[in-house]
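Reminder: ligand-aware prediction takes two inputs, not one.
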Amino acid sequence: MELLDGRKVSKEILLSLQKEVVELEKKHIHPKLVVLLVGKDPASVSYVSQKQKACVTTGVQWDQVDYETDVTTEQLIEKIQELNKDETVHGILVQLPLPKQVYVPDVIRAIEPKKDVDGFTAYNLGKLFLSTEFEYLPPCTPEGVIKILEHYKITVEGKEVVVVGHSNIVGKPLSIMLLNRNATVTTCHVFTKDLASHTKRADILCVAVGKPNLITADMVKEGAVVIDIGINRTKEGKLVGDIDFENVSKKAAYVTPVPGGMGPMTVACLMDNTVKAAKRLNKLT
Ligand code: NAP
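Here is what comes back for the chain with NAP:
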């Protein structure tokens, strides 16, 4: 089994972006990302800090706006509208999840699509349906899956690909992006009858559910490529994915580790989207 090393591949992406940022700065363009963080949920704080570190590595400018957990939908929208108009800002990201009183669809909808570096607006998600050519600001985790497969020269065309999980931010857009690359895609979810009968057929199995050990070795085809997107914390405080890593890795040809797989790839793709947005907003692409 070969590990698909997200840490290594993401570093390469960040270093290449660093060079692009230097070139943009010569043109007086300073790519800038602004993150809105509500509350102090430890997982959200940790994700935000990883994004900030990636900004430091690439030279992308960073700003963070913190809110208490009693923030309203209107307050967030007001800030987003201000950032939409600010020409020094190229990427706006609202760290999810948000407290119950906030209506998330309205918050996401308020983001100017050209600055939607998380790729969550209906505009950017809708463009995914057209073709790879229109994947302008794709959601970062699905884009990370595509990039890691490309890095390891794992072709998707004609393959049986099974995606487990159909969320709007991971499973659904990932399924569409794989379809755009001519895979035969099956998307499974909580209502799928006999999950194993699908996963066992997969040449490439992508799992984004959030349940440790959901995928056991008997559910995986010999020689498959397994992309574990899940992030779960065990009672002992250890980070694990959705697959039984120890046993699945004896059967699969390639596996992404957790941590060190899709997490860093997601952050690298966020940086890539921010640089792309800065270029596009300055009419360089
Ligand atoms: P989500 O919105 O909770 O979606 C989970 C999906 O899994 C849903 O489609 C759900 O179906 C499905 N599901 C639940 N139980 C299932 C089961 N027993 N069998 C098959 N499908 C099942 O979560 P998400 O935002 O997509 O995230 C999924 C996981 O990926 C989480 O662990 C999250 O932390 C992780 N994640 C990682 C990254 C990264 O950077 N590596 C980024 C984003 C997310 P229903 O909707 O029908 O219930």
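Residues 139-263 form a domain with the Rossmann fold fold (CATH 3.40.50.720). The chain has two domains: 28-113, 139-263. We will return to this case in the review session.
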